[in-house]
Amino acid sequence: MFRTALRNVLAHKARLLMTVLAVTLGVAFVSGTLVFTDTLSKALSGQSAKSYEGVAVSVSSYGTARDENGVKEGDPGISQQVLDKVKAVKGVDTVSGRVSGFAGVGDENGKLIGTGWANQGTNYAPVKDGKDPRYAFTEGGGPASAGQIALDRETARKGAYKVGDKVRVATNGPVKEYTLTGVFTTDDGQVNAGGSMVLFDTPTAQALYLQPGFYRELSVSAKPGASADQLLADIKPLLGKNATAKTGAELAAEQAKAIEQQMSGMSTGLLIFAGISLFVGIFLIYNTFTMLVAQRTKELALLRAVGAARGQVIRSVLAEAGVVGVVSATIGLVSGIGLAIGMRGLMETAFDAKMPAGDLVVAPGTVVAAVLIGVVVTMIAALLPAWRTGRIPPVAAMGSAHLPATGKSLVLRNVFGGVLGLLGAGVTFLGVSQGSDGRYTVAAGGFFLMLGLIVLLPLLSKPVIAAVRPLLSRLFGVPGKLAAQNAVRNPRRTAVTAASLAIGLTLVTAMSVIGVSMGKAVDRMSTDKLKADYKVSMSGGIGSLDKSVAETLAKAPGIKAVSPQTAGYLKINDTFKSASGVNPATIGQLLNVEVVGGDLAALGRGEVAVAEKTARSAGLSAGSTVDVGYEDGTKAKLKVGAVYKDLDGLLSPYVLDDKVLSAHSEEPYIPEVYVKVAAGESKAGEKAVVDALGNNPAITVASRQDMRNEMGGLVNTALNIMYGLLGMALIISVLGVVNTLAMSVFERTQEIGMLRAVGLDRGRVKNMIRLESVVISLFGAVLGVAVGGFLAWAGGKTFSKSVPGYELVLPFDRIGVFVLLAAVVGVLAAMWPARSAARLNMLTAIKTE
């Protein structure tokens, strides 16, 4: 029977081609993801381990802390005295102190080089022979005094800097000019991720990032024969309570584990989309084997007639599926390895991320997973068609009649589908009622709803397609009428073919509706609530601006209003609440603050403004008092001077005068400063702000449109990634339509020959096949769009409260494009089957059984 199965595969290899492609694509996605993440994880772990080479013990300091009364405890870092004590420990060879923070380098046009969050500055710490073992210099040497720096090779190349050049460098304050003394290479992960590194001499770095005479960490190397564990035990007693020490081996292991977790998250995300592709592929495989079994009814009945048992016939069909699965898995694994190599190149070119060097990792688990997925998915999809072969009686060998679905099976299917659909809808509505806690419930409801839809598709196909039959007849005549009839002749086949498109478009539509709705909410926030012309922040949006930024802007010509947005917290009823520090005199000119009680001017009198929802839940109103605790432990009783409508994303629930909030914070955290200029939002206005800040490459000046693009761009980027990943599922859907039509043409060879004999010319035969394909595609698309819109509404309800101004927006233009693309898919998918049908010799076709 296995030889029979193998001969059948070879005999029907053309019909199984699309099935092989579908499984291959899914397996390639899975294996490519596993190979890429395994390779990247090993390379990053190797890079991390290399950075700890020669480090016996690493000491880190958390800096000063405050107790419950706000009293400072501990030093700001590791003092020079502690470093000297560590250096004197028996077995210690060298000790280098490190301190680091943000540093941005500008190119010749003043633009920041590298990714903002990964741009860093640190100190050059020579320990032996005047060299720092962390850096290998290709030109010049390390900085030896204030006013000197060294740059990593990639940053120097991008900025066209050479040793001796003047380089403008910014931290979180004003730009300063330094002399370049050297260019180096490094294995630092942030630099390889597209960032930059600036080396200062130690006193300069300490003054910039911590405090003179203190370090954030120490790297200790051991003398030959000294034990790292013993050194650790000897060093720990020398440290203060806010410092910790670990061996280099421990840190390397922790870093490797963290990398593994990060890669696991990335892998899981990609594998979800691979799973969707394979799920869609199941319908194609099921349809293919269903049609193959139906077309080979006489052949299979003959096998039964000559003595083959039911189990043998079933196993022969499953063996065919197994062969297809093994071939697909093998091709998919090889393709996946190529995909992983391509993903690596994409990361380096598209995202400007230098990937760490390392060998390609094809783990045994990846090979096993690829084979198992390819074979198991194919076998599962072919299981039901194979089981049906066991029901073919030997008497069927006397004719070519197929086994139609019984009325009982269709009734059971419709009942089961109805129950699943109702269950899915019920669970979805339950998730909506749960609010922000119901996201996973909505996802589960959506899954059951889609399953119910798939099961009910045969029932839905007849009325839906019947509704468009008159239109097809009127517009396209006989080919249109025949196409509509063919589309519902076998409801199960039509349903399975349409299901793959329905699944893909359900997901795409849901994501599009949510993405567009989020974008509109962001747009409303930037237009309705923001009156400032510009927002000033650190490049990359990470880190705090220096307090001098707001002071400088307030004094600059052409600038009307400035307010910092200082982020802090208040302790209220033993709970920490976020607070914003603003300029009371100008905040009303920069944000559209709608006061519902009291007066915003009360901020200038040292009173607090509270957001409406927070005030309602805390039982506060204008004139109330509230007991607060500040960051430094100071306690106060504040009067509520104003209650305002919530400005989520722009103001915290509690707002104070910036002078009051900052007075209780040693280092105020200022993520942004809002600015309004006399020239308005224009090139002249932007130039006034940029010039006032000294054309600082580390600072971004964003207009309101820039803010819209920045926030909306994140949504669009996420959507584009989703579209790309779901594209695999849609490609498999197209293959399914092609395969179904091609096999349907083969099945209807005699019928097409008769149509040609009675006068249907080749052109109208082609139109008939094309229209049938378009009808099936649009059927799946319309249902997918409808379910996707419903799930988008449900999903939006679960996070609408956390996104200010969120309202459901139906992007009819995008939905129209999706439906149009489905029609185009139908036309393209029908090209080969239509051409094959039109080229049939009518006499030969009539004689075909």
TrEMBL record:
The chain crosses the membrane at residues 270-294, 317-341, 361-384, 410-432, 438-460, 495-518, 721-746, 774-795, 815-834. It is found in: Cell membrane. The keyword Ion transport does not apply. It is a multi-pass membrane protein. Keywords: Cell membrane, Membrane, Transmembrane, Transmembrane helix. Residues 17-237, 494-683 form the MacB-like periplasmic core domain. Residues 272-394, 725-841 form the ABC3 transporter permease C-terminal domain. InterPro entries: ABC3_permease_C, MacB_PCD, Macrolide_Exporter_MacB. The keyword Membrane applies. It comes from the Bacteria. It holds the Pfam family MacB_PCD. Belongs to the ABC-4 integral membrane protein family. This is ABC transporter permease. It comes from Streptomyces antimicrobicus.
